[in-house]
C-alpha cells in the first residue's frame, strides 16, 4: 500500500473543520450547565448538529480527495461507514426513546433485547456514567474544552460561574498553560 502524507491544503482544511467541530462540542457542554437552563434544549441541539455537520464536511472533503485519487467506491463506502448512516430528519428512533426511559426511570421494555440494552445504557447514564469508576479521560476532555474556550475568550474567571468546582479547577489549569495564538507576521 502506498504511503503518502495528506496534502497540505487538505490537512489545513481538515484541521479547520475539526477545530470548528470541537468549538461546537464545547458549546454543547456549556449549555448543559445550570446557569443556562432557560435555553439548553435549543442550544444543545443546534450546537450538536452543527458539530455533526462540520465533521460530515471534513469526512466528505477527505472522501472527495480519495475518490479523486482513484479509491474504489466500495472501499470509500466502507470507510465512510454508510451502513451506520441515518438521517436526523427521521427524528428519534425507538432505541433513543428506550435509552431516555432508562435515564428517567421509565418502564423496562420486555419484548426486545436491543430495547433492553438501550434502556440499560440509559440507566448507566442516570447512575453517573456507563463505567463504574470515574472516567478521568472524560473529565480531562471536558476541562480541556472549557479551558481552551476560556483562554480564547479571555474569560478564565467565568469558569467558576458555570462549572462544578473540580472541573473549573482543572479547566483553569488548562487555560493557564495555553498561550493565546498571535497572528502570523510576514
- Major beta sheet summary: none
Strand content bin = under 5%
> Cα-atom Rg, whole angstroms?
20 Å
Name the poorly predicted regions: none
Which descriptor suits the 3D outline? flat
**Overall strand count:** 0
Description of the structure:
The protein starts with 7 loop residues before the first helix and ends in a 9-residue tail after the last helix. The protein has 186 residues and is mostly helical. It has eight helices and no strands. The chain is 63% helix and 0% strand. Helix 1 packs antiparallel against helix 2 (40-68), helix 4 (94-104) packs across helix 5 (113-126) and helix 6 packs across helix 8.
Features:
mainly alpha, 8 helices
Task: Write the SSE topology.
Layout: H1 8-30, H2 40-68, H3 73-79, H4 94-104, H5 113-126, H6 136-152, H7 159-162, H8 165-177
Helix pairs in contact: 1-2, 1-6, 4-5, 6-8
Précis, in short:
By secondary structure, the chain is mainly alpha-helical. The chain has helices at 8-30, 40-68, 73-79, 94-104, 113-126, 136-152, 159-162, 165-177. Helix 1 (8-30) packs antiparallel against helix 2, helix 1 (8-30) packs across helix 6 (136-152) and helix 6 crosses helix 8 (165-177).
Amino acid at each position: 500500500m502506498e504511503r503518502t502524507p495528506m496534502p497540505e491544503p487538505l490537512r489545513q482544511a481538515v484541521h479547520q473543520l475539526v477545530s470548528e467541530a470541537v468549538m461546537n462540542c464545547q458549546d454543547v457542554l456549556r449549555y448543559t450547565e445550570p446557569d443556562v437552563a432557560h435555553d439548553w434544549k435549543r442550544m444543545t441541539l443546534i450546537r450538536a448538529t452543527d458539530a455533526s455537520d462540520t465533521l460530515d464536511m471534513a469526512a466528505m472533503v477527505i472522501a472527495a480527495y480519495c475518490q479523486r485519487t482513484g479509491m474504489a467506491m466500495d472501499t470509500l463506502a466502507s470507510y465512510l461507514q454508510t451502513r451506520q448512516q441515518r438521517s436526523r430528519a427521521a427524528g428519534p428512533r425507538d432505541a433513543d426513546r428506550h435509552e431516555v426511559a432508562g435515564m428517567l426511570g421509565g418502564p423496562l421494555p420486555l419484548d426486545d433485547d436491543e430495547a433492553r440494552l438501550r434502556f440499560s445504557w440509559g440507566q448507566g447514564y442516570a447512575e453517573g456514567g456507563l463505567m463504574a469508576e470515574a472516567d478521568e479521560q472524560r473529565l480531562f476532555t471536558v476541562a480541556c474544552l472549557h479551558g481552551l474556550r476560556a483562554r480564547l475568550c479571555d474569560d478564565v474567571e467565568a469558569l467558576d460561574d458555570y462549572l462544578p468546582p473540580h472541573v473549573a479547577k482543572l479547566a483553569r489549569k488548562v487555560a493557564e498553560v495555553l498561550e493565546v495564538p498571535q497572528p502570523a507576521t510576514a
